Amino acid sequence: MLTPAEADARIGQHLQCLPIESLPLTQCAGGVLRENIYAERDQPPFDRVAMDGIALDSRAVADGRRAFRVQATQAAGDPPLTLAANTACIDVMTGAVLPAGCDCVVPVEDLTVTDGEAVFGAAVRVEPWQNVHRRGSDTRQGTLLVSAGTRLHAPEIAIAASAGMARIRVSSQPMLAVISTGNELIEPGEPVLAHQVRRSNAYAIVSALREHGFQRVADDHIQDDAEELRERLRFHLETHDVLVLSGGVSMGKFDLVPQVLEELGVHAIFHKVAQRPGKPLWFGVAPSGAAVFGLPGNPVSTLVCLSRYVLPALFASLGQQPLPPERLALGAPVTVTPPLTHFMPVRIEQDDWGRPWAMPAPTNGSGDFTALAGTDGFVELPPGPNTYKKGFVTRLLRWS
Ligand code: AMP
Ligand code: MG
């Protein structure tokens, strides 16, 4: 049986990179950049006034002058004025270009202005370039600002806008199909009988996908019937990039998913991973290149496998640069008995010094998803038998 790391490697070998599309900036939040962004101009593009006040020539102050005639006003967006004489100053606003002939700004808080003359006391220090954000001091024209493979959040979107880009090249969103299997599953809102259960996994999977920025998500429910499975899965394989199935991959008589997928030409890459929960995980690739994840139906297994395998695979296929895994220390000991990688749900709590700890929140087995309420994610613990003490640092995966 594969280890989780071996399963990751197999998935990675069979993923297709999604195509690129050019989108207006307003539609790029959460997307993955597929081109480099370079500085259009120096940043700031001119010597920028950084305080409301007066701009003047600091040499006049060094010579002892403390009173300056206000020559003119320069607002942000005005072309630069020129200082007429070093006995004069120019009233300037934050964001304005520093007027020619000036080399500093004295803030309005340090001044009194009477009859068109600005005066400040001897205690007010005036140095060349004070309160001036100098041209090119942040970045130079042509500097690489954001590289391909970066996930776009507010700062990167602002940088793209500052580089003058109205549209940017990002990975196109994959077409995802979330498919529940099982005769026992009943839709929320419909009457449910004693021997039936609610179809909850699909809602969990769809919301996790949406929370991570995936919007093109179809949802289907298929009965445990080989013919129906064949028909519907054939359709989904033709129309989607990635299929996320839940249920039907274990060893039961009605766990028909692997067999039907293989009949449809989906090549099984692996079935089963040495982990708890989620051991029956199935992964395959269709002739079209579509990736198929068969997640075990037990709700804790489904969510763990989604976060541990499906979401990272989706980000890799978007072209996202791999991020180092997040790690956190256990806040209490955990004993692991079977020789399987163990995924333990955790709540992240801060101690009195503000340090975060992963507090174990064990479930009553892989069917007990009600125990997940209020948890933040889960940690990955190496195979047992072993007791991992408080302070053991290990990989953390968050639900969101
Ligand atoms: P399976 O993997 O199909 O053998 O299902 C394992 C367990 O998970 C069974 O108790 C199913 O009823 C339950 N299960 C499967 N799919 C879902 C779902 N979509 N929502 C809630 N429970 C499910
Ligand atoms: Mg089932």
Give a brief outline of the structure.
The chain is α+β, with helices and mostly antiparallel strands and 400 residues long. It is built from 7 helices and 28 strands.
Describe the structure.
- It is a single chain.
- This protein has four domains: 4-18 and 173-317, Molybdenum Cofactor Biosythetic Enzyme, Chain A (3-Layer(aba) Sandwich), CATH 3.40.980.10; 20-43 and 138-171, Molybdopterin biosynthesis moea protein, domain 2; 48-133, Molybdopterin biosynthesis moea protein, domain 3 (Molybdopterin biosynthesis moeA protein, domain 3), CATH 2.170.190.11; 326-398, Beta-clip, CATH 2.40.340.10.
- By secondary structure, the protein is α+β, with helices and mostly antiparallel strands.
- The chain is elongated.
- Helix 5 packs across helix 6.
- The protein has helices at residues 4-13, 58-62, 154-162, 201-211, 226-239, 257-263, 299-317, and strands at 20-24, 37-38, 48-49, 53-56, 67-74, 88-92, 104-107, 112-114, 117-119, 132-133, 144-146, 167-171, 176-181, 185-186, 197-198, 217-222, 242-246, 267-271, 275-276, 282-285, 291-295, 327-329, 334-336, 341-350, 356-360, 377-381, 386-388, 393-398.
- The chain starts with a helix and ends with a strand.
- The strands form eight sheets. A six-stranded mixed β-sheet has the order 7-4-6-5-9-8, with no helix packed on it. It has a six-stranded mixed β-sheet with strand order 16-13-17-21-20-18, with helices on both faces. Strands 19, 22, 24, 25, 26 and 28 form a six-stranded mixed β-sheet that branches.
- Magnesium ion is lined by residues 181-182, 224, 247-248, 297.
- Adenosine monophosphate binds at residues 180, 182, 184-185, 197, 199-202, 246-248, 250, 252, 255, 296-299.
